[in-house]
Amino acid sequence: MDQPLILDGLRVAEDIKRKVKEKVAGLKEKGIVPCLATILVGDDPSSATYVRMKGNACRKLGIESIRIHLPKETTTEELLATIHELNDRDDVHGILLQHPVPSHIDERKAFEAIHIDKDVDGVTSLGYGQSAFGFGLYPSCTPAAILSIMDYYQLPIAGKHAVVIGRSPILGKPVSQLLLNRNATVTICHSYTQNLEHHVKQADIVVAAVGKPRFVQGDWIKPGAVILDAGYNKGNIGDVDYDACVAKSGAITPVPGGVGPVTIATLVKHTVEAAERKATLQAQ
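Structure (tokenized):
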């Protein structure tokens, strides 16, 4: 078998950001500065790192970044009030509520409070529904990143059998819908799936989004399969046992340097698109 293709997310992200930078320059010529507001509740170190990375990505591309850090004691009502304030701000084009929030907060209610025009991370049920129907403005960023990687490397989707391991509302479920909309045959697996190994062995495309380090084993992989590892666990470890799976794969994303950088690039891309859309609507 040929050597597997290593799907370099950093390379894909740079391509996205190059195009974003051109759009930002065009907006600034019109006096518009795209702006992403991020909300972090509590002091989870991983979440703080993610928010900082997203803010840095914005700054490097000339996008305004507003960082709101609320104490872990924040109530659902207080968080909702913050989101509503950002919804009402004309200078804010995208809102990101960093997941997870402290357990006493109704996270779903908070996500639903984000206005659809500013839901650049694709977390609302309306945004999910629109994406599932194929006309959503901003699909969930990690699922969109997975498809961007496949498109960049011209990996075929139509007619392929994709197995998605995981069914979260911001990853497993939406990526399944996006693949289905691209004419893949999709099997969704989860913690209750029996004979998981059997299902994975049938897959031309494997999306690992289960949140367990090195969960997907090498002997589960169909020779030549495309593996997209959307997991990120402590110690920079993905959901795929990379060393065991790489030899059997046709193409595979590493961790780190795979899906993660493209997810962040997709977030800033969606924010700029939101700014462009608002400018177009205001000009009408």
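The chain has two domains: 30-115, 140-259. The mean pLDDT is 96.
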